[in-house]
Amino acid sequence: MQERGLKQIDIVRSAQHHNVKLGRSHISQYVSGHSVPRADIAAFLAQTLGVDVQWLLGETEATVSQNSEQQRTEQSNAYKVTRHAQSSLEYGADYQPLQPYAAPLRLKADEQDTQPTRTFSKSHKLDDVLYDVRGPVVEEALRMEAEGTDVLKLNIGNPAPFGFKTPDEVVYDMRRQLTDCEGYSPTRGLFSARKAIMQYSQIRGLPNVGMDDIYTGNGVSELINLSMSALLDSGDEVLVPSPDYPLWTACVTLAGGTAVHYTCDEQSEWYPDIDDMRAKITDRTKAIVIINPNNPTGAVYPREILEQIVQVAREHQLIIFSDEIYDRLVMDGLHHTSIASLAPDLFCVTFSGLSKSHMIAGFRIGWMILSGNKRIASDYIEGLNMLSNMRLCSNVPAQSVVQTALGGHQSVNDYIIPGGRIYEQRETIMHALDQIDGISYVKPKAAFYIFPKIDVKKFNIHNDEQFALDLLREQKLLIVHGGGFNWKQPDHFRIVYLPRNSVLNEAAGRLQIFLSHYRQ
User: Fold this and answer.
1) CA dihedral 401, 402, 403, 407 (to 10 degrees)
2) Cis status of the peptide bond prior to 186, with omega within 30 of 0
3) pTM score > 0.85 for this model?
4) Cβ-based neighbours of 13, under 8 Å, separated by 6 or more
5) For 193, what's the count of Cα atoms within 13 Å in the CB-facing half-sphere?
């Protein structure tokens, strides 16, 4: 690509012109060497780059004669073809598709096997899946760190590396119970854990919840995957917010369904656009997903918005899936309402856990609660039980501390009031962003994320992943671009404000220096 003067976006646009399904994340994976294109994509890339497809896939040992007139001619021809592609991209109105290149640059091999080497490609189910919270930009950061570069990371909501400690009582109780946790637990979880979760759900107002309606999991992530796999057939649709936590879209896709994104409106505190939600319901729609409190925006949905969502689900007979992992991290005196408490006549699935509220992300303990009208979902529940049984059980030592964690003093409350770390770090990052021309934001009300908006006209930004890469390479600052959360415009990015104030101020300073001259 460098030799031909091409960027990743050039390849993507050329693919669009040729009706080849190829995205930026795919190209990034190929360039980094973390995945290999399947045969049809490899043929397209080889034609576009003017090289031999076997060489591109690493199937031949390349030796190039520097004095070969024929090779120089072929290289020149290949370059002309590639320049034609660039010109076509720049002048779309005059574009004519590339013709198959008759004589690509074939690099000679010392030895060639008589039988072609078999290669293995990833599943096509992954073609539309992204998880850029740990994606190509993070891979570049890891490469830089391996070379000795110190990267300031604001990309992932993992409290432990930033000095947040698990409550002593939780650690003490786990140690005391370790010898009792050596075997499998019941598939849904330990009695003590499920009893504590059931009582917690009763306090939150979730209707019609019994012990058998509680499922523990290796974090909420496992349970999201399980819940979608048990529900969806090919072509089924699920309404998912945009921006979203990308695992939701990924799990819908991997289960064979289609994630249909409804817009959350930045002009309205990032609340769901109810009209947009209604407009996207079809006869294939099975469920609505909400993330409240929201990741990546930090929004907390008021009761009136939740009631409107319940009404939409009621009118169209939809399941409600509610991701509430941040329900104990709400600031500014606001109250979090669980949507299931407003929908006793509907079937709802509510997710939460201890990873964030008790700073034990590595313990991997989350839960899923079935509530409301379970009669209409009896067959689906049978599917949940089948998949739950297949994974045997979740992490038993982590289950053993659920009762302790949910009872007594909640140390997280000390973090989210004035003077507490999370509250004060939110104030710090907001004040720092206020000083940067071209950046705006909606004040987050919960969790520990902020989702700033970039003035794309000012900075000429048309590719937010490239923006994140350029920021990383120049300022050694790692953030996640908005596209990583299925936000379609290249005008947002997420900052995790878990680091201490001094680190957040340094990060904002690097961002300000970068934007003082950056133009894409």
Assistant:
1) 110
2) no
3) no
4) 89
5) 29
504: left (phi over 0), alpha (psi -120 to 50) or beta: alpha
Gap between the terminal Cα atoms of the chain: 19
Task: Give φ, ψ of 46 to 5 degrees.
Answer: -65, -40
Query: Which amino acid is residue 272, in one-letter code?
Result: P
The three-point CA angle 193-328-177 to 5° equals: 30
What the block records as the tokens of 437 is: 């021309």
Nearest 10 degrees: CA dihedral of 174, 180, 184, 187?
A: -70
d(CA 466, CA 24): 10
Tokens of 162: 């930033």
H or E segment to which residue 370 belongs: strand 366-372
Q: Write the DSSP assignment of 224-276 as a string of letters.
A: HHHHHHHH--TT-EEEEEES--HHHHHHHHHTT-EEEEEEEEGGGTTEE-HHH
* Distance separating alpha carbons of residues 68 and 95, to the nearest angstrom: 33
Tokens read off for 214: 């509680």
Whether omega for the bond prior to residue 444 falls within 30 degrees of 0, making it cis, is: no
Q: Which amino acid appears at position 467 of this protein?
A: F
- The C-alpha atoms of residue 338 and residue 309 are separated, in whole angstroms, by 12
DSSP secondary structure letters along 80-140: HHHHHHHHHHHSGGG--PPPPPSS-B--EES---SSPPP--PPPGGGTT---GGGSHHHHH
- Please say whether the beta carbons of 412 and 354 come within 8 A: no
User: Minimum mean pLDDT among 74-83, 142-151, 348-357: which range?
Assistant: 74-83
Ramachandran area for residue 208 (φ above 0: left; ψ -120 to 50: alpha; else beta)? left
CB 296 within 8 A of CB 243: yes
More confident position, 513 or 21: 513
**Is 159 within 8 Å of 137 (Cβ atoms)?**
no
Contact in structure between 391 and 189 (CB atoms under 8 Å): no
- Cβ(449)–Cβ(495) below 8 Å: yes
Q: Tokens in use for 211?
A: 């012990």
Q: Is the pLDDT of residue 378 over 90?
A: yes
Task: Give the H or E element holding residue 215.
Answer: strand 214-217
- Max distance between CA atoms of the chain, in angstroms, equals 81
* Distance from C-alpha of 443 to C-alpha of 298, rounded to nearest angstrom: 8
Residue 263, pLDDT above cutoff 70: yes
- Nearest C-alpha neighbor of 468 from the set 94, 120, 135: 135
pLDDT in tens, 135-162: 788 889 999 899 899 999 998 888 888 8
